[in-house]
Every structure is written in C-alpha cells, then in structure tokens.
Design a protein that fits this description.
This protein is mostly beta strands. The protein is built from 3 helices and 26 strands. The chain has helices spanning 103-109, 117-122, 165-169; strands spanning 4-6, 33-39, 44-51, 61-65, 68-72, 77-83, 90-98, 126-134, 137-148, 153-164, 179-183, 201-207, 213-218, 241-246, 251-257, 261-267, 273-278, 284-289, 329-331, 337-342, 355-359, 364-371, 374-382, 387-392, 398-402, 406-412. The strands form 6 sheets. It has a 5-stranded antiparallel beta sheet, with no helix packed on it. Strands 2-3-26-25-24 form a 5-stranded antiparallel beta sheet, with no helix packed on it. The chain is globular, with a radius of gyration of 21 Å.
Length: 420
C-alpha cells in the first residue's frame, strides 16, 4: 500500500496554485492543494481544492467513512482520501477494489459514434456509491452500467458487497463478492452506436436505521421518443423512474415516474425526497417527490429542442407543465444540474434548511431557500468547476467532487483577516 502526502502547504489564491512533485507509482503525478475565497450574500467562503491523481474519468460519487472520504471514480476504481483537521495536509491512496462493471467488454464489442471515442467510452461508468456500517461489517452499494454480451444490450445495475471495514480501510487485497441488487429493465440495444450513458441517472439514497430501503434514479438513456421510442411512461419499464427497493424482501417498485436524467436525490431529516433532473435544452428541474406521482417527461418540459429553440416537440402545451406534477423550480437556460443536499448541520446557521444544488455546465452551486414547495431565493455561487457530487460532511462542511478530479471542501471564513 502506497500513501502519498503533501504536507505543510497553505496556498491562498483566487486562481489555482500548484506544487509539482515526483513520486514512485501510478498515482504519483502532479497534485496540489489550493484555496480560494468565494463571496456570497451571507458568508465569505473558503474553498479548499485537493486534486486527485489518475482518477479514472468523469462520473462517480463520494461517501464518508470513519473520518475519510471514499471516492469511486467513473471507471469504477476506489480511492480513500484522508484530510488533516486544518485542511492543509492530505493523503489519497488507491484501494484494491473495483465496481463490477465490464467497460472493457463494452469497448471491445461496441463501435461508438462521435469524434471523441475516449469521451464516449467514459459515458459507460460508475455513477454513485452509498455505504452502511454495522459493527465492523461494511456494506457497499454501487450504481453502474452493465453490458450484456449475450443479448448485445446495455443496462443500469446496482451491485452490493459486504467486507470487513478494517480490511477495507487497510487496503487488504480481499476480493469483493459482488451481487446484483437491482437491474433496470428492459436491457437496451444501442442505435447505430449511439450510447447516451450520461443520461442514466444512477443516484442512490439509503433510508432507515438500519437501512431497509434503497432508492435509485434511472434516466431515459436517450429513449425519449425522439427519435428512439420512449419507455419513460411505460409502467413495466425501469427507465425514467425513481425505483424503491425493499432490502429486506429484495423487491423493487416504482416510486415516481416521468424523469429524464435525474442526477440528484436527497432524503432530508423531515422525510422529504428531493430530486434534480436535466431537461433538454433548458428546463432543468428541482422536484419534491411524492410517491406515485408523474413528473411528466417526455410529455411536458420547460425546455426546447437541442437542434433549435423550438418548443420540445412532444410537449402538449409548450411553456407549461399542465397535467403533471410541477417542479419546485426550473432553470432556463439549463445549468446541467447534478446532485443536491439540504443543509442540516450548524456550520452555516443562516443557510440551515436550505437546499444546495450542484451543476455541471453551470459550474456553480445554487443555494435555494424554499418554503411550502416554492423556491423563494435562488443564489448562484460560482465554483468554476463541473461539480459531479455533493455531500455535507460530519462537521457541516460542504464537500464536492468535480469532473476535473478535485475533492473540494467549502467552509465559512471565521477569521475576518483571512486571507492575509
């Protein structure tokens, strides 16, 4: 096991500052820690960026474990991140475990369209990870794509494994015995090499103590009725739904319907389920979910066609959301919405209870103060990074995972003289 460390580094900047170093293995590349100041309506924030080595492509997710952060990259590789209390010192190391996705077989079988084949292949990826620890037993759930070679089709899976927590934290090379918790149906054949894996959803939320329910968002994978047939409104299909899994009896049911590409899901301390999803060209949504409700895609959208600014062709009443559950808020133009949290700690007392939504194309966070199902305040907080995942840390800090492979910690500045 190899640990790499940057010590005693405190860089205060408005632009990234880097330290170059040489190392002794595959994870030994350029890495750095940097800090920047961000001004908001209520707080001056300190954003501390830690760059990862060889992170394995876009996508993936983060989860907290015994003082460390587990990062599962888009290629399914596992890394642990350990940060000092001051945030000036960190180490990151790769674990001998991997999500059970068969990207190599997918790449060997499928000829993808598009000029950037590497980017297209990275759309076949791991999307999220959640953990539950009981004593020293650690259970892991990962959402990821799966290529069915026999049927020549692709699907979305949730796989799970149990391992001794000490073995996991100490990187012992013990093989994980993965089993399939859920598989989206039907398995989808690709059309002319087009793979819209970035429209898969894949967010996971555990519920219960101990957990007895697992929720999964499933996107439409581009099967939206134009030109591919839509499966979203088909009650027998998994696509375009939030799936509710009963972990005790190992049964699954549809929780909500009518979603395009739901990349964010959060269950708050009041028992409310929040969801963010991509619209087409415009119309990204924040939704407050109610079991059994239909949120309308692809029959309604506040967005437009990608090729033109004409109304979404399948929308029954363009510019309206009639006949289906309305979003709490919709972004026009799109921000490329990703994951979200609702702040529940005391680190940001003036923001407590507010929703923080991350974005990809928007390269920002959006703080939303909502009451009675209405967004009262929407404050953009510029990050200049594509934010893939977001979590609230144990001390109330906001933790982000970006597509350029940085783990970012957002904390309020308490020292009025910082930075000096």
């Amino acid at each position: 096991m190899m640990h790499l460390r940057i010590s005693g580094l405190r860089v205060v900047c408005l632009a990234a500052a880097a330290i170059l170093f040489t190392g002794c293995g595959p994870d030994s590349v350029i890495r750095y820690t940097s800090q920047k100041v961000i001004h908001t309506g209520f707080y001056q924030l300190r954003a501390t960026h830690h760059m990862f080595p060889n992170p394995g492509g876009m996508g993936g997710g983060i989860a907290y474990l015994e003082g460390k952060w587990l990062v599962v990259s888009g290629d399914g590789s596992f890394r642990l991140f350990d940060r000092s209390e001051t945030g000036d010192d960190f180490r990151v190391w790769k674990l001998p475990y991997h999500a059970p996705m068969n990207r190599n077989r997918f790449a060997a079988t499928v000829v993808l369209q598009g000029k950037n084949q590497k980017r297209e292949l990275q759309r076949f990826r791991a999307m999220d990870v959640v953990l539950h620890q009981s004593g020293r037993n650690l259970q892991i759930w990962v959402s990821h794509h799966w290529w069915d070679e026999k049927e020549s089709c692709v699907t979305l899976r949730v796989s799970t494994a149990v391992i001794d927590a000490d073995a996991f934290l100490n990187s012992k090379p013990i093989g994980l015995n993965w089993t399939t918790e859920y598989e989206a149906m039907p398995c989808l054949e690709l059309s002319d090499g087009k793979f819209s894996g970035h429209e898969s959803g894949g967010k996971l939320v555990l519920s219960g103590n101990p957990p007895d329910t697992l929720y999964l968002t499933v996107g439409d994978l581009g099967f939206n009725g134009i030109p591919l047939p839509s499966l979203v409104q088909d009650p027998e299909a998994s696509w375009g739904k939030v799936i509710k899994m009963d972990l005790q009896v190992r049964a699954a049911s549809v929780f909500t319907t009518g979603h395009r590409n739901p990349q964010g899901l959060f269950l708050d301390d009041l028992g409310r389920m929040w969801l963010t999803e991509h619209g087409p060209r415009g119309g990204d949504e924040l939704n407050l979910l109610k079991q059994g409700e239909n949120y309308g895609w692809p029959l309604v959208s506040y967005g437009t066609s990608y090729q033109t600014y004409d109304p979404w062709p399948l929308s029954r009443n363009p510019g309206r959301h009639e006949g289906f559950r309305e979003p709490v808020y919709a972004w026009v133009p799109s921000i490329g919405v990703s994951d979200l949290i609702r702040l529940q700690g005391d680190r940001f007392p003036l923001w407590k209870g507010d929703i923080v939504v991350a974005s990809l194309n928007g390269r920002s966070l959006f703080r939303i103060h909502a009451r009675e199902g209405r967004a009262i305040v929407v404050e953009p907080i510029r990050m200049d990074k594509r934010i893939r995942d977001i979590a609230e840390g144990p001390a109330g800090e906001i933790v982000l995972w970006s597509d350029n492979h940085r783990l970012i910690f957002i904390e309020p500045v308490l020292d009025p003289e910082w930075p000096k």
